[in-house]
Amino acid sequence: MAGTFEFDRMIDRRGTGSYKWDVPDGELPMWVADMDFQTAPCVQKAIEQRAAHGIFGYNVVTDEWYDAYQSWWETRHHFRIEKDWLIFCTGVVPALSSIVRKMTTVGENIVILTPVYNIFFNSIVNNGRNVLQCPLLYRPRLGEGGSLSGDVPASEDARGQEYDIDLGALETALSDPQTSLLIFCNPHNPVGRIWTREELARVGELCKKHHVLVVSDEIHCDLTDPGKEYVPFASASETCREISITCIAPTKAFNLAGMQTAAVFAADPAIRHKVWRGLNTDEVAEPNTFAVPVTIAAFQGGAPWLDALREYIHENKMLARTYLKEHLPKLHLVPSEATYLLWIDCSAYSDDSVTLTEFLRGQTGLYVSEGAEYGETGRNFIRLNLACPRARLSDGLSRLKEGLLAFGKE
Fold first, then answer.
1. Among residues 366, 353, 377, 320, which one has the least CA distance to residue 150?
2. How far is CA 266 from the centre of its chain?
3. What is the pLDDT, as a whole number, of residue 146?
4. Cβ distance 287 to 129 under 8 Å?
5. How many CB atoms lie within 10 A of CB 391?
6. Fold of 2-41+303-408
7. Is-contact 137 115, C-beta < 8 A?
8. In angstroms, what is the C-alpha Rg of the chain?
Protein backbone atom coordinates (compact mmCIF):
# COMPACT_ATOMS: atom_id res chain seq x y z
CA MET A 1 0.00 0.00 0.00
CA ALA A 2 2.87 2.39 0.74
CA GLY A 3 3.75 2.42 -2.96
CA THR A 4 0.45 4.16 -3.71
CA PHE A 5 1.83 7.35 -2.16
CA GLU A 6 5.12 9.16 -2.75
CA PHE A 7 6.90 8.51 0.53
CA ASP A 8 10.20 7.96 -1.33
CA ARG A 9 10.06 11.44 -2.84
CA MET A 10 12.91 13.65 -1.62
CA ILE A 11 11.55 17.14 -0.96
CA ASP A 12 13.85 20.09 -0.22
CA ARG A 13 12.46 21.87 2.84
CA ARG A 14 15.22 24.45 3.16
CA GLY A 15 14.09 28.03 2.72
CA THR A 16 10.51 27.28 3.76
CA GLY A 17 10.76 28.52 7.34
CA SER A 18 10.97 24.93 8.60
CA TYR A 19 11.99 24.71 12.25
CA LYS A 20 13.46 21.27 11.65
CA TRP A 21 15.46 22.27 8.57
CA ASP A 22 16.74 25.62 9.85
CA VAL A 23 20.27 24.20 9.86
CA PRO A 24 23.50 24.91 7.96
CA ASP A 25 24.04 23.40 4.51
CA GLY A 26 25.36 19.88 4.69
CA GLU A 27 23.62 19.03 7.96
CA LEU A 28 20.95 16.36 8.15
CA PRO A 29 18.31 17.07 10.82
CA MET A 30 16.74 13.93 12.27
CA TRP A 31 15.73 15.33 15.62
CA VAL A 32 12.36 17.08 16.14
CA ALA A 33 9.19 14.98 15.59
CA ASP A 34 8.27 16.42 12.20
CA MET A 35 7.99 14.21 9.11
CA ASP A 36 9.65 14.86 5.74
CA PHE A 37 6.53 13.67 3.89
CA GLN A 38 3.81 15.74 2.29
CA THR A 39 0.51 15.36 4.09
CA ALA A 40 -2.36 13.23 2.75
CA PRO A 41 -3.72 14.30 -0.66
CA CYS A 42 -7.21 14.81 0.81
CA VAL A 43 -5.78 17.28 3.31
CA GLN A 44 -3.85 19.14 0.62
CA LYS A 45 -7.06 19.41 -1.40
CA ALA A 46 -8.98 20.80 1.59
CA ILE A 47 -6.31 23.46 2.12
CA GLU A 48 -6.37 24.44 -1.54
CA GLN A 49 -10.16 24.71 -1.58
CA ARG A 50 -10.24 26.83 1.56
CA ALA A 51 -7.42 29.06 0.32
CA ALA A 52 -9.22 29.58 -2.99
CA HIS A 53 -12.11 31.22 -1.14
CA GLY A 54 -9.84 34.18 -0.45
CA ILE A 55 -11.49 35.44 2.75
CA PHE A 56 -9.80 34.58 6.03
CA GLY A 57 -11.81 36.10 8.85
CA TYR A 58 -12.70 34.74 12.26
CA ASN A 59 -13.69 31.08 12.43
CA VAL A 60 -15.96 28.78 14.43
CA VAL A 61 -15.66 25.13 15.32
CA THR A 62 -18.26 23.39 13.16
CA ASP A 63 -20.40 20.38 13.90
CA GLU A 64 -18.44 18.51 11.24
CA TRP A 65 -15.27 18.97 13.29
CA TYR A 66 -16.88 17.26 16.29
CA ASP A 67 -18.27 14.50 14.06
CA ALA A 68 -14.83 13.89 12.55
CA TYR A 69 -13.19 13.35 15.94
CA GLN A 70 -16.04 11.19 17.21
CA SER A 71 -16.15 8.98 14.14
CA TRP A 72 -12.36 8.55 13.96
CA TRP A 73 -11.99 7.53 17.60
CA GLU A 74 -14.96 5.20 17.49
CA THR A 75 -13.83 3.55 14.24
CA ARG A 76 -10.05 3.48 14.76
CA HIS A 77 -9.76 3.29 18.52
CA HIS A 78 -13.07 1.71 19.61
CA PHE A 79 -13.92 4.52 22.01
CA ARG A 80 -16.90 6.84 21.95
CA ILE A 81 -16.06 10.46 22.71
CA GLU A 82 -19.25 12.39 23.41
CA LYS A 83 -19.59 15.67 21.57
CA ASP A 84 -19.85 17.77 24.72
CA TRP A 85 -16.57 16.32 26.00
CA LEU A 86 -14.56 17.91 23.17
CA ILE A 87 -12.88 21.32 23.27
CA PHE A 88 -10.88 22.83 20.42
CA CYS A 89 -7.33 23.93 21.20
CA THR A 90 -4.52 25.32 19.07
CA GLY A 91 -2.12 22.56 20.13
CA VAL A 92 -1.35 19.83 22.62
CA VAL A 93 1.55 21.77 24.18
CA PRO A 94 -0.53 24.92 24.79
CA ALA A 95 -3.22 22.68 26.25
CA LEU A 96 -0.77 20.99 28.64
CA SER A 97 0.55 24.31 29.92
CA SER A 98 -2.95 25.70 30.30
CA ILE A 99 -4.07 22.61 32.22
CA VAL A 100 -1.05 22.88 34.52
CA ARG A 101 -1.94 26.49 35.30
CA LYS A 102 -5.67 25.91 35.75
CA MET A 103 -5.74 22.55 37.54
CA THR A 104 -2.75 22.92 39.90
CA THR A 105 -1.22 25.64 42.03
CA VAL A 106 2.30 27.07 42.22
CA GLY A 107 4.65 24.87 44.23
CA GLU A 108 2.72 21.62 43.75
CA ASN A 109 4.30 18.48 42.33
CA ILE A 110 3.54 17.14 38.87
CA VAL A 111 4.63 13.58 38.15
CA ILE A 112 6.12 12.46 34.85
CA LEU A 113 7.35 9.00 33.85
CA THR A 114 10.87 9.49 32.53
CA PRO A 115 12.46 9.38 30.02
CA VAL A 116 9.64 11.39 28.47
CA TYR A 117 8.89 14.18 25.99
CA ASN A 118 11.09 17.08 27.04
CA ILE A 119 8.37 19.74 26.76
CA PHE A 120 6.59 18.18 29.75
CA PHE A 121 9.43 19.59 31.87
CA ASN A 122 8.93 23.05 30.36
CA SER A 123 5.18 23.05 30.98
CA ILE A 124 5.83 22.28 34.63
CA VAL A 125 8.88 24.40 35.45
CA ASN A 126 7.86 27.45 33.43
CA ASN A 127 4.64 27.61 35.43
CA GLY A 128 6.26 27.42 38.84
CA ARG A 129 5.41 23.81 39.64
CA ASN A 130 7.80 21.06 40.72
CA VAL A 131 8.84 18.21 38.44
CA LEU A 132 8.59 14.87 40.22
CA GLN A 133 10.34 12.31 38.03
CA CYS A 134 9.25 8.69 38.29
CA PRO A 135 11.72 6.71 36.15
CA LEU A 136 10.38 3.88 34.05
CA LEU A 137 11.93 0.48 34.63
CA TYR A 138 14.46 -0.17 31.86
CA ARG A 139 15.26 -3.84 31.35
CA PRO A 140 17.01 -4.44 28.03
CA ARG A 141 16.74 -8.00 26.82
CA LEU A 142 19.85 -10.11 26.41
CA GLY A 143 20.55 -11.87 23.12
CA GLU A 144 23.02 -14.60 22.30
CA GLY A 145 26.30 -14.31 24.13
CA GLY A 146 24.90 -11.72 26.51
CA SER A 147 24.87 -8.94 23.94
CA LEU A 148 22.04 -6.45 23.93
CA SER A 149 19.39 -7.30 21.39
CA GLY A 150 15.91 -6.20 20.45
CA ASP A 151 15.19 -9.42 18.61
CA VAL A 152 14.30 -11.66 21.55
CA PRO A 153 10.58 -12.51 21.47
CA ALA A 154 8.64 -11.35 24.52
CA SER A 155 7.57 -14.96 25.10
CA GLU A 156 11.22 -15.86 25.73
CA ASP A 157 11.82 -12.97 28.09
CA ALA A 158 10.18 -13.43 31.48
CA ARG A 159 10.84 -9.78 32.30
CA GLY A 160 8.40 -8.60 29.64
CA GLN A 161 8.80 -5.27 27.88
CA GLU A 162 11.98 -3.23 27.69
CA TYR A 163 10.27 -0.38 29.56
CA ASP A 164 7.63 -0.82 32.25
CA ILE A 165 5.96 1.45 34.76
CA ASP A 166 7.46 1.15 38.23
CA LEU A 167 4.12 1.01 40.06
CA GLY A 168 5.74 1.11 43.50
CA ALA A 169 7.72 4.24 42.70
CA LEU A 170 4.67 5.75 41.03
CA GLU A 171 2.52 5.25 44.12
CA THR A 172 5.21 6.82 46.27
CA ALA A 173 5.25 9.88 44.02
CA LEU A 174 1.46 10.11 43.88
CA SER A 175 1.10 9.73 47.66
CA ASP A 176 3.03 12.94 48.35
CA PRO A 177 0.40 15.42 49.60
CA GLN A 178 1.91 18.07 47.30
CA THR A 179 1.32 15.95 44.18
CA SER A 180 -1.74 17.05 42.21
CA LEU A 181 -1.22 15.99 38.58
CA LEU A 182 0.29 13.21 36.47
CA ILE A 183 1.23 14.09 32.89
CA PHE A 184 1.05 10.78 31.07
CA CYS A 185 2.29 9.92 27.57
CA ASN A 186 0.29 7.30 25.60
CA PRO A 187 1.85 5.91 23.43
CA HIS A 188 5.09 6.87 25.11
CA ASN A 189 7.55 9.28 23.53
CA PRO A 190 10.46 8.50 23.24
CA VAL A 191 10.45 4.80 24.21
CA GLY A 192 7.67 3.75 21.82
CA ARG A 193 5.60 1.75 24.32
CA ILE A 194 1.87 1.21 23.81
CA TRP A 195 0.54 0.85 27.34
CA THR A 196 -1.86 -2.03 27.89
CA ARG A 197 -5.41 -1.65 29.18
CA GLU A 198 -4.34 -3.30 32.42
CA GLU A 199 -1.41 -0.92 32.91
CA LEU A 200 -3.60 2.10 32.24
CA ALA A 201 -6.29 0.89 34.60
CA ARG A 202 -3.73 0.39 37.37
CA VAL A 203 -2.36 3.90 36.88
CA GLY A 204 -5.92 5.21 37.07
CA GLU A 205 -6.58 3.33 40.32
CA LEU A 206 -3.44 4.71 41.95
CA CYS A 207 -4.21 8.26 40.86
CA LYS A 208 -7.77 8.08 42.17
CA LYS A 209 -6.54 6.60 45.46
CA HIS A 210 -4.24 9.57 45.98
CA HIS A 211 -6.56 12.25 44.50
CA VAL A 212 -4.28 12.99 41.56
CA LEU A 213 -5.63 14.18 38.20
CA VAL A 214 -4.27 12.67 34.96
CA VAL A 215 -3.67 14.52 31.71
CA SER A 216 -2.84 12.06 28.93
CA ASP A 217 -0.93 13.26 25.87
CA GLU A 218 -2.08 10.94 23.07
CA ILE A 219 -0.79 12.87 20.06
CA HIS A 220 1.19 9.84 18.75
CA CYS A 221 -1.76 7.45 19.04
CA ASP A 222 -2.32 6.98 15.29
CA LEU A 223 1.34 6.18 14.60
CA THR A 224 1.34 2.59 15.76
CA ASP A 225 3.03 -0.26 13.91
CA PRO A 226 0.81 -2.19 11.47
CA GLY A 227 -1.35 -4.61 13.43
CA LYS A 228 -0.86 -2.68 16.69
CA GLU A 229 -3.57 -0.60 18.38
CA TYR A 230 -3.28 1.88 21.20
CA VAL A 231 -5.72 2.03 24.11
CA PRO A 232 -7.08 5.49 25.01
CA PHE A 233 -6.43 6.17 28.68
CA ALA A 234 -10.04 7.21 29.22
CA SER A 235 -11.28 3.89 27.81
CA ALA A 236 -9.29 1.67 30.19
CA SER A 237 -11.79 1.89 33.04
CA GLU A 238 -14.56 4.03 34.46
CA THR A 239 -12.07 5.39 36.95
CA CYS A 240 -9.66 6.42 34.19
CA ARG A 241 -12.48 8.19 32.39
CA GLU A 242 -13.60 10.07 35.51
CA ILE A 243 -10.20 11.43 36.60
CA SER A 244 -8.59 12.28 33.26
CA ILE A 245 -8.14 14.91 30.60
CA THR A 246 -6.92 13.75 27.19
CA CYS A 247 -5.08 15.75 24.53
CA ILE A 248 -5.43 14.56 20.93
CA ALA A 249 -4.76 15.91 17.43
CA PRO A 250 -4.28 14.96 13.78
CA THR A 251 -1.05 16.93 13.63
CA LYS A 252 1.55 14.27 14.37
CA ALA A 253 -0.01 11.54 12.22
CA PHE A 254 -0.73 13.80 9.25
CA ASN A 255 2.29 16.12 9.59
CA LEU A 256 0.20 19.22 10.34
CA ALA A 257 1.95 20.76 13.34
CA GLY A 258 2.11 24.15 11.65
CA MET A 259 -1.69 24.23 11.30
CA GLN A 260 -2.17 24.74 15.05
CA THR A 261 -5.06 22.36 15.58
CA ALA A 262 -5.84 19.93 18.41
CA ALA A 263 -8.55 18.90 20.84
CA VAL A 264 -8.93 18.24 24.54
CA PHE A 265 -11.61 16.03 26.02
CA ALA A 266 -12.76 15.28 29.54
CA ALA A 267 -15.78 13.21 30.55
CA ASP A 268 -16.22 14.72 34.00
CA PRO A 269 -18.23 17.97 33.61
CA ALA A 270 -16.55 19.80 36.50
CA ILE A 271 -13.06 19.00 35.23
CA ARG A 272 -14.10 19.85 31.68
CA HIS A 273 -15.48 23.24 32.69
CA LYS A 274 -12.23 24.20 34.41
CA VAL A 275 -10.19 23.10 31.39
CA TRP A 276 -12.50 25.04 29.07
CA ARG A 277 -12.11 28.15 31.22
CA GLY A 278 -8.34 27.77 31.25
CA LEU A 279 -8.05 27.36 27.47
CA ASN A 280 -10.25 30.38 26.87
CA THR A 281 -8.47 32.50 29.45
CA ASP A 282 -5.18 31.63 27.76
CA GLU A 283 -6.71 32.47 24.34
CA VAL A 284 -5.82 29.11 22.78
CA ALA A 285 -9.36 27.94 22.05
CA GLU A 286 -10.07 29.66 18.73
CA PRO A 287 -9.21 28.09 15.35
CA ASN A 288 -7.35 29.69 12.49
CA THR A 289 -8.78 29.47 8.99
CA PHE A 290 -7.30 26.05 8.18
CA ALA A 291 -7.41 24.32 11.58
CA VAL A 292 -10.92 22.94 11.24
CA PRO A 293 -10.90 21.98 7.52
CA VAL A 294 -7.61 20.03 7.77
CA THR A 295 -8.87 18.06 10.75
CA ILE A 296 -12.10 17.14 8.99
CA ALA A 297 -10.26 16.15 5.82
CA ALA A 298 -7.70 14.05 7.68
CA PHE A 299 -10.21 12.11 9.75
CA GLN A 300 -12.80 11.72 7.01
CA GLY A 301 -10.54 10.75 4.11
CA GLY A 302 -7.01 10.17 5.37
CA ALA A 303 -7.19 6.56 6.59
CA PRO A 304 -5.71 4.92 3.44
CA TRP A 305 -2.79 7.37 3.42
CA LEU A 306 -2.17 6.89 7.14
CA ASP A 307 -2.18 3.11 6.87
CA ALA A 308 0.32 3.32 4.01
CA LEU A 309 2.45 5.69 6.08
CA ARG A 310 2.46 3.28 9.01
CA GLU A 311 3.69 0.50 6.72
CA TYR A 312 6.43 2.71 5.32
CA ILE A 313 7.59 3.82 8.78
CA HIS A 314 7.62 0.20 9.96
CA GLU A 315 9.78 -0.74 6.98
CA ASN A 316 12.12 2.12 7.90
CA LYS A 317 12.33 0.72 11.44
CA MET A 318 13.25 -2.70 10.11
CA LEU A 319 15.88 -1.19 7.81
CA ALA A 320 17.38 0.73 10.73
CA ARG A 321 17.36 -2.33 12.99
CA THR A 322 19.13 -4.45 10.37
CA TYR A 323 21.69 -1.73 9.67
CA LEU A 324 22.54 -1.18 13.32
CA LYS A 325 22.80 -4.91 13.98
CA GLU A 326 25.22 -5.35 11.07
CA HIS A 327 27.28 -2.16 11.33
CA LEU A 328 26.94 -0.89 14.89
CA PRO A 329 26.29 -3.98 17.04
CA LYS A 330 27.34 -2.24 20.25
CA LEU A 331 24.27 0.00 20.03
CA HIS A 332 21.00 -1.22 21.50
CA LEU A 333 17.89 -0.17 19.59
CA VAL A 334 14.92 -0.30 21.96
CA PRO A 335 12.02 -2.15 20.28
CA SER A 336 9.16 0.20 19.46
CA GLU A 337 5.45 -0.37 18.89
CA ALA A 338 4.55 3.24 18.09
CA THR A 339 5.86 6.63 16.91
CA TYR A 340 8.47 7.15 14.20
CA LEU A 341 11.23 7.78 16.71
CA LEU A 342 14.15 5.46 17.43
CA TRP A 343 15.36 5.33 21.04
CA ILE A 344 18.92 4.08 20.97
CA ASP A 345 21.04 3.04 23.95
CA CYS A 346 24.56 4.35 23.28
CA SER A 347 26.06 3.44 26.65
CA ALA A 348 28.68 1.25 24.94
CA TYR A 349 30.10 4.46 23.47
CA SER A 350 29.33 7.13 26.04
CA ASP A 351 27.40 7.89 29.22
CA ASP A 352 26.91 11.49 28.09
CA SER A 353 24.54 11.89 25.13
CA VAL A 354 25.02 15.65 25.06
CA THR A 355 28.72 15.29 24.28
CA LEU A 356 28.01 12.43 21.88
CA THR A 357 25.34 14.23 19.85
CA GLU A 358 27.44 17.37 19.64
CA PHE A 359 30.30 15.27 18.30
CA LEU A 360 28.07 13.53 15.75
CA ARG A 361 26.77 16.86 14.49
CA GLY A 362 30.19 18.44 14.26
CA GLN A 363 31.81 15.39 12.67
CA THR A 364 29.12 14.30 10.20
CA GLY A 365 26.33 16.91 10.18
CA LEU A 366 23.86 14.41 11.65
CA TYR A 367 21.57 16.26 14.03
CA VAL A 368 19.75 13.98 16.50
CA SER A 369 18.30 14.57 19.95
CA GLU A 370 20.33 13.88 23.05
CA GLY A 371 18.54 11.58 25.47
CA ALA A 372 19.35 13.82 28.43
CA GLU A 373 16.57 16.15 27.23
CA TYR A 374 14.06 13.52 28.30
CA GLY A 375 15.27 13.15 31.87
CA GLU A 376 18.32 11.89 33.67
CA THR A 377 17.49 8.27 32.80
CA GLY A 378 17.88 9.15 29.12
CA ARG A 379 21.45 10.35 29.44
CA ASN A 380 22.90 7.27 27.69
CA PHE A 381 20.47 7.48 24.75
CA ILE A 382 19.87 9.34 21.52
CA ARG A 383 16.53 9.84 19.74
CA LEU A 384 16.47 9.65 15.96
CA ASN A 385 13.52 10.55 13.73
CA LEU A 386 13.12 8.14 10.79
CA ALA A 387 9.94 9.65 9.26
CA CYS A 388 11.68 10.47 6.01
CA PRO A 389 12.30 8.97 2.56
CA ARG A 390 14.37 5.79 2.71
CA ALA A 391 17.31 7.39 0.91
CA ARG A 392 17.47 10.08 3.60
CA LEU A 393 17.31 7.47 6.35
CA SER A 394 20.17 5.54 4.73
CA ASP A 395 22.20 8.75 4.65
CA GLY A 396 21.47 9.33 8.33
CA LEU A 397 22.47 5.81 9.33
CA SER A 398 25.71 6.09 7.35
CA ARG A 399 26.50 9.35 9.14
CA LEU A 400 25.73 7.73 12.48
CA LYS A 401 28.17 4.92 11.71
CA GLU A 402 30.85 7.37 10.56
CA GLY A 403 30.42 9.52 13.64
CA LEU A 404 30.43 6.68 16.16
CA LEU A 405 33.49 5.08 14.63
CA ALA A 406 35.29 8.42 14.86
CA PHE A 407 34.02 9.01 18.39
CA GLY A 408 35.34 5.62 19.46
CA LYS A 409 38.83 6.66 18.36
CA GLU A 410 38.81 9.93 20.32
1. 320
2. 20
3. 34
4. no
5. 11
6. Aspartate Aminotransferase, domain 1 (3.90.1150)
7. no
8. 21
State which CATH number among 3.20.20.150, 3.40.50.1970, 3.40.640.10, 3.40.800.10 fits the domain covering 63-301.
3.40.640.10
Give the DSSP per-residue string, 284-329: --S--TTHHHHHHHHHHH-HHHHHHHHHHHHHHHHHHHHHHHHH-T
Residues 130-178 pLDDT 10s: 999 999 999 987 553 333 444 433 333 333 469 999 999 999 999 999 9
Asked if the bond preceding 153 is cis, omega within 30° of 0, the reply is no
Asked if the domains at 2-41+303-408 and 63-301 fall in one CATH topology, the answer is no
Q: Which residues of the chain have pLDDT under 50?
A: 144-160
Quick one: pLDDT at residue 3?
66
Locate the domains of the chain by residue range: 2-41+303-408, 63-301
Predicted pLDDT of residue 389: 98
Q: Could you give phi then psi for residue 279, rounded to 5 degrees?
A: -65, -40
pTM for the full predicted model: 0.94
